[in-house]
Amino acid sequence: MLARKSPEFDDIATNNLSDAYLLEEVAAGRAVFEVDEHAVAVVRPEGWHPDQPASSLWLVYVEPGARRAGHGRALVKRVIVKHVKDYPMVLLCHGEARVRFFRRCGFALDHTTAAGSWMVRMPRKPRRVARPASRPA
Ligand SMILES: CC(C)(COP(=O)(O)OP(=O)(O)OC[C@H]1O[C@@H](n2cnc3c(N)ncnc32)[C@H](O)[C@@H]1OP(=O)(O)O)[C@@H](O)C(=O)NCCC(=O)NCCS
Q: pLDDT confidence of 52, banded at 50, 70, 90?
C-alpha cells in the first residue's frame, strides 16, 4: 500500500517520518500496519517502551479515489478499539482539516506546537491503580 502512494502522500508526512523509517520500525516489530481494502494505518502499540507506554498513530492513508467515503474513519475506529486499552493514543497532525478528521474519529486536540497539532485519544476506562492495603489504625 505504501508503494501505491500518490504524490499527496509526501504532503502528509505528519510526523516527518519517512516511509523508510516506518517500514524499518514495522520490520523491527516496534510498529504495526493496520490495513483495510482502501486504507492503511501505522501504529506504534502501547507498552512498546516501559517509560513511554502510550501508543502512537503515525499514519492514516486512504487511496485518493476512495476518500470521503468513510474508510479513514472506519479504520481509525478499528485501530482505537484494537490498540487503545490502558493508555492514551497520541498523534501529531497538520492543518485544520486533519484536526477535524481526527476529532470525528474520536481524538481530542491536546495542544499545538510549531511541529503541529497533538491529539489524544484516552482509554475508555481509566487504568486500574492498585489500592494500598488498608492498615489498622
Ligand atoms: C485524511 C484521510 C485519512 C481521511 O480519510 P477519508 O476516508 O477520506 O475520511 P472519511 O470519509 O472517513 O471522513 C471522516 C470524517 O472526516 C471528515 N473529513 C474527511 N476528509 C476531510 C477533509 N479533507 N476536510 C474536512 N473534513 C474531512 C469527513 O467529513 C467525515 O466526517 P463526516 O462523516 O461527519 O462528514 C484521507 O483524506 C487521506 O488519506 N488523506 C491523505 C493522508 C492524510 O492526510 N492522512 C492524515 C494524516 S496521517
A: confident
Using the mean position of ligand 1's atoms as its centre, give its distance from the Cα of residue 104 in Å: 9
Q: For the chain, give every domain's residue range.
A: 2-121
| Pair 65, 37: CB distance under 8 Å | no
Cα–Cα distance measured from residue 110 to residue 118, given in angstroms and rounded to the nearest whole number:
6
Q: Per the confidence metrics, is the pTM higher than 0.70?
A: yes
Residues with CB under 6 Å of ligand 1 are 8, 12, 14, 59-62, 67-73, 93, 97-98, 100-101, 104
CA dihedral 48, 44, 83, 99 (to 10 degrees): 140
Neighbour count for residue 70 (Cβ, 10 Å): 13
What kind of fold does domain 2-121 have according to CATH? Aminopeptidase (3.40.630)
Q: Are 106 and 77 in contact (CB under 8 A)?
A: yes
